[in-house]
## 1
Amino acid sequence: MAQAPGLQLAERQAQIAALMRDGQARLCAAFEELEAQGAAEAETQQAGRFLSSTWERPGGGGGTSRVLTEGAVFERAGVNVSAVSGEQVPPGIASEHPGTAGNPYFATGISLVLHPRNPYVPAFHANFRYFDVGGDWWFGGGMDMTPTYGFEEDATFFHRVLKDYCDRHSLVYYETLKQACDRYFYIKHRQEMRGVGGIFFDTLQPGGPEGWEQAMAFVQDGIDTILAAYVPLVQRRMTTPYGRRERNWQIYRRGRYVEFNLVYDRGTAFGLQSGGDIEAVLMSMPPVARWDFCYQPEPDSPEAGLVAFLQPRDWVAN
Amino acid sequence: MAQAPGLQLAERQAQIAALMRDGQARLCAAFEELEAQGAAEAETQQAGRFLSSTWERPGGGGGTSRVLTEGAVFERAGVNVSAVSGEQVPPGIASEHPGTAGNPYFATGISLVLHPRNPYVPAFHANFRYFDVGGDWWFGGGMDMTPTYGFEEDATFFHRVLKDYCDRHSLVYYETLKQACDRYFYIKHRQEMRGVGGIFFDTLQPGGPEGWEQAMAFVQDGIDTILAAYVPLVQRRMTTPYGRRERNWQIYRRGRYVEFNLVYDRGTAFGLQSGGDIEAVLMSMPPVARWDFCYQPEPDSPEAGLVAFLQPRDWVAN
């Protein structure tokens, strides 16, 4: 027996919102476990713990930011979840999705940004989101990695895990979403990539009677893949010794992260313009960043090779 | 005897470009003198010196960036001068100035940004610029100040010098240009002012036979006023003792400076989009900036009062 569309919609919204909340809890628990490992190894650093901050949106809904600061492994780790609804879809969404203007909408998402302490551990970003308005719906999301030092085996591992994840759902996903990621995380004014890429999708809405369930399964598996794709690399690099040189380079490269987020990132621009919770929007900012005028790494140094290392390439060829 | 318009135009361009170059030389010399004073007082810090970097624009013209790094007084001081010309006015300019499209243009300007080491010394920004295209011309510019700690007497001094400067040229300038500055240097997503303001003008083109000479005199006097408005405040505060607390607050507040420049500043946006010399465009960035999640200064601390202190007000009422 077919369900009434309204009931089905409400059930779907509850299901996806629960997925996001549950993902936040599991991810934060896993990162705190990493912190305990890191603190045990480091001796001088204490394990970081997540603090929570909840905000409500006057129009309906709200969110919870969980942020860990000055940990043994992560200088900053943030995991945001939000679920908001309203009577009128925001103009920016309506203009990109014809026929949705004036309709009520629902949106939920999870986003996380990890800025590790050790310069050999790559920074990491992921988000997954769901939107429905007036009978239309779509999912978005992705994850990408931003190393300060380029290790072929790390980038290959990361992309291999992402390809396996994509292939479980569709054999065309990885190549398409990998290219979309390379197009998106580009710092145009520097002609540099932000990192080694990953996967990115803006409007996933498979057709067919099982379309919603298929997209939902892809996003659910994506949230589960975050830890599989990243944690082994953190464990591999988090005890590598480093000094002032590597630390300075890390903080300098974080300036590029700031430039990308404030100049190009659409989620950040939307958050700043829509007057959402500014601290949650800017949770993605690194704890500290440098700008050095006309800085060039020494020729043939490990630092000098990074920008070339980040050029888009096929990481899983074989 | 009237001059041919082309000859007059070329003479004007040479005159204003020379003013900018000469301003750069004098300003850098004055800041190096401040550095020598600061180094003599600090003992542990060496006087900073400006390094030069010259760039050429393939289409015509170029510029010189002069940057001082890690000085005794300034953590970073940058003074840029450029003079460029081309056969076709850029689309962004043409759209704002009807009738100029397709015409050759000439643009020259000076801009400076000073990020002091001592958190009690305010950061400072100024620029003056000139544009002509197809018989039309205009000047722009201004200067503003960004304290980390609010001192009434410093803001009053600064605005008093600016008002005296404006009043020498027109009694309506100060009030108008002060309000324009308050409108411009606003961090909308934070609902905060960037600093205590100053003066700002986008399109100054006085009419009448002496219009050009009047505007030129205002800009010339403006460049001369930079030192009068700012140097006494540097000298007043540069030896005030400070510790880690004040330094952290300074670096945190510099995050706001980064947010303004990358999200709102039109000159920065134009520079990033037009593919100019990126290091010269981003010379305005602070050497180092922090973001602390949900940071709030302690109630009733000197830091807690800053945002309220920066609210626009009449600094020269008496």
## 2
Amino acid sequence: MKKLGLFLLIALGTLACSTSSTKKNALVFQSDFGLKDGAVAAMKGVAFGVSDKLRLFDITHEIPPYNIWEASYRLDQTAKYWPVGTVFVSVVDPGVGAERKSVVLKTKSGHYIVTPDNGTLTLVAEHLGIEEIREIDEVKKRLSNSDESYTFHGRDVYAYTGARLAAGVISFEEVGNILSNEIVRLDYQKPVYENGVVRGNIPVLDVQYGNVWTDIDKNTFSKLNSYLNSLLNFSLGINQGSFADQFKIASGEAWKIELIKE
Amino acid sequence: MKKLGLFLLIALGTLACSTSSTKKNALVFQSDFGLKDGAVAAMKGVAFGVSDKLRLFDITHEIPPYNIWEASYRLDQTAKYWPVGTVFVSVVDPGVGAERKSVVLKTKSGHYIVTPDNGTLTLVAEHLGIEEIREIDEVKKRLSNSDESYTFHGRDVYAYTGARLAAGVISFEEVGNILSNEIVRLDYQKPVYENGVVRGNIPVLDVQYGNVWTDIDKNTFSKLNSYLNSLLNFSLGINQGSFADQFKIASGEAWKIELIKE
Amino acid sequence: MKKLGLFLLIALGTLACSTSSTKKNALVFQSDFGLKDGAVAAMKGVAFGVSDKLRLFDITHEIPPYNIWEASYRLDQTAKYWPVGTVFVSVVDPGVGAERKSVVLKTKSGHYIVTPDNGTLTLVAEHLGIEEIREIDEVKKRLSNSDESYTFHGRDVYAYTGARLAAGVISFEEVGNILSNEIVRLDYQKPVYENGVVRGNIPVLDVQYGNVWTDIDKNTFSKLNSYLNSLLNFSLGINQGSFADQFKIASGEAWKIELIKE
């Protein structure tokens, strides 16, 4: 390991941060649409048409196509840094037209997430908590004149509902009927220590720099009797190189890591 | 065809949508500049310098370099979702410095498009209609102190004029002289049925998902005596794969498709 | 050279432009974070949490990782087009956690740049001038509850300080102690004429179109007794092709060019 010049990094995802003041009218989008076509602009046009008071932002639109896990991770990584009351619209929706529900989650921290309930809420529900979930009535709560046989849900249901909620045109209660807290959750390896082995998940790669992040926190790591004074999460990197490329490591709910102290 | 698990998709571009309320101060950019350098930020800086009341948005800046057709398509795909009065600035301009005119189109729907008249207006003129076209006086209507021997037209003429129009600093009439409605139009295959064959164009690929879109609408398609209950336009895809890659299909005004019922 | 259909282009970076009016509340970001993860959105969430009056913009987040030179160039290319009083936050920071200082530069033109002092200020200091530099106190001037053993400086120090400065929560004087004007400067070949040779730097490629830009201005070039009536800077391109690809040219502070008149 020393030969590779490895160093330990900290995963951004776990930093605690309080943003206590309530702000209004922020609507933050993420999707797997990419930035090359007009889908994101159509969503924003619809939102701005709901109210020109809205402030429109983005997490990313470069979620790999259909990658629900990464949608869940990016939401979890960023939502807590936005003011209470911020509305997020997440559209990674391989099941569009199928049975998944369209929902709005209100977290215990006071953030709102508008999304298909397909696993996207997995991490944010764990870390920010579920205050209440309501189902979007897809027939009533859609852009007028979009009720043709086809609907672009990202624009006509999610962006439209998110915009009306963020602008105060509708209240959270008016989104639709209340649901139980039984959201769809993706399965992944949570950080554990057992019989001298620490197990965890590789949630994402640090794509820009090639570092490999894990969800293994300081407390779990320290059960190996190791000392990680200045770190919050365990990560792997090469100084100004790509650890991920060199060792052909990818990420996702299926990627696990085991650490053993020699 | 069945072996490939083909399914039919709907092209976004044809959904009708009314956004009837008039909003002010929205300025929406598209270009082939990409997001890696400072050209887009220079345009936005100039626009924000005209008025800090302006709300600045983007369609995309990833139009393939010099691809006027795709500029035309992206405008057409998104403009109708923005409120009446929205001003669009489109800068895909292989003829910069040449004879093409710089114009502002007011559509019958009440949207404004600031662009070189090089074909970019082809589709939006067809679908939203031409209310009136005015020529930008490139000598008078440019950023002060930019009248050196060289001008970055995107910034000094288009962004600057678009910003002044969107902010109400100038009226549409003050843009410049009125022109005839004879804009430069790109030639492409419109959807037709003839002697048992449906012909159409492949305007763009759904780049993010690899689907192939056509401009063949439901009515034209149904002349094959086929039944397409839930669709608006005819498209080709593979479930979670790229039809375009697999069959090496590209797009543009020159790409045509023929459908024959067996 | 003629066979290649070369033509001369003008580098954007040198156009003079006055934007004299003072505007408030604009905060403009650039980084090497890319747009695929949540880092940029976390910075913007923190900034919007400081004040919902702030207007948030971007230069680019596609600076090549760790490329301080390009950060310097992009700032220099765009800052002058933004109104006086605009605050820029630049985070290209290979030395994070090391000895480099965190500073705010006030330029003579009245723009503010929040950045690690690692060379990022090289070009903007030359062209817009140094009015005053203050050091950010990293312990006091950071997001509350981020004072764990690890800090994401881009978010907790730079975005946070930039937002407070742009929103008027703190004055420039309250950023921290005044420093001397001895910033870290990158070395590069400035345009010179000597003994029949013009020397200059290739600061960046025009990545979207493949043109090669130099910093050789019209006055220096003309010392070859050449006449460049309509140009401001000397550049190399192929009509609708990539000069950079064809001749394998890259850019940066280490790339030099020599011109000799035959």
